[in-house]
Amino acid sequence: MEHYEKKISFLGENIQTIRKHRGMKQQELADKIGINMQSLSKIERGVNYPTFDTLEKIMDVLGVTPNELLSGEWKYIDHTEPYIMDVIKREQDFNVSLDYLSENEFFDDEKECTFYKAYKLIQYIHNYITNEVTELEELMEIKQLIQRQKLERMIKVHKEMRGLDRYREQPKEYKYHDPYDDWIFRQLADIDNRNNIPDTSPQVDFNEADYEDYLKAKWNRGL
């Protein structure tokens, strides 16, 4: 009897642990498996044992095997590795797809391909920096990376503009074909519009409504 009660206790605790790890509320799981929340609560507390049909639905929704639910405490750390490998694979697939875009016969010319590749890279970066779990420190690191790249490219173009040999011709290793056309340099240095670097004036542009929406979203996620 004691062994049976221990099994029920393990089962209920594991269901609760895995449910929380999946980011699901009790009512959400109850709705998906077709029982009321009170019944699920009793299962998770080890008061009742689920029927075989309910147990199958729980395993299906939570994505676990019978052995994982019944063989003792569920170690969620063991379940993170497949997700890591999946992310690595999708990242690699993304890199390969970008590398081979130029060979895709869909595009009429190289400019179309370049435009599409830039669009996908912007989308990728936007998805990362707007992710709910992205920390402020990470954004500061991205800022530093962008600043370094901006300065390095500006200095490179400056060097190419001034990199004329003794015959007033540009050396072959430089890609900037017209050293007297400073349009690229002006764009990089933000000379004309001065809008690449935003002003930081909370007295002017801090939006309290956006901040309240941000707090509500964090509250709803339980953070």
Q: Mean of the pLDDT scores?
A: 82
Question: Which secondary-structure class do the elements indicate?
Answer: mainly alpha
Distance between the termini: 40 Å
Helix content: 55-70%
Gyration radius from CA atoms, angstroms: 28 Å
* Total beta-strand segments: 0
Give me the strand/helix succession: HHHHHHHHHHH
Domain count: the total is 3
Unreliable stretches: 1-7
Main sheet attributes: strand count, strand direction, barrel closure: none
> Please, how many helices?
11
How much of the residues is beta strand, in percent? under 5%
The geometry reads as elongated
GO molecular function: DNA binding; DNA-binding transcription factor activity
Domain HTH cro/C1-type: 15-69
Protein name: HTH-type transcriptional regulator Xre
GO cellular component, one term: cytosol
Folded structure, characterized:
There is one protein chain. The protein is mostly helical and 223 residues long. It folds into three domains: 2-78, 434 Repressor (Amino-terminal Domain), CATH 1.10.260.40; 80-131; 136-223, no CATH class. The protein is built from eleven helices and no strands. Keywords: DNA-binding.
SSE diagram, text form:
Blueprint: H1 2-21, H2 26-33, H3 37-44, H4 52-62, H5 66-70, H6 81-99, H7 110-129, H8 136-162, H9 183-189, H10 202-205, H11 208-220
Helix pairs in contact: 2-3, 8-9
GO molecular function, one term: DNA-binding transcription factor activity
Protein name: HTH-type transcriptional regulator Xre
Keywords: DNA-binding
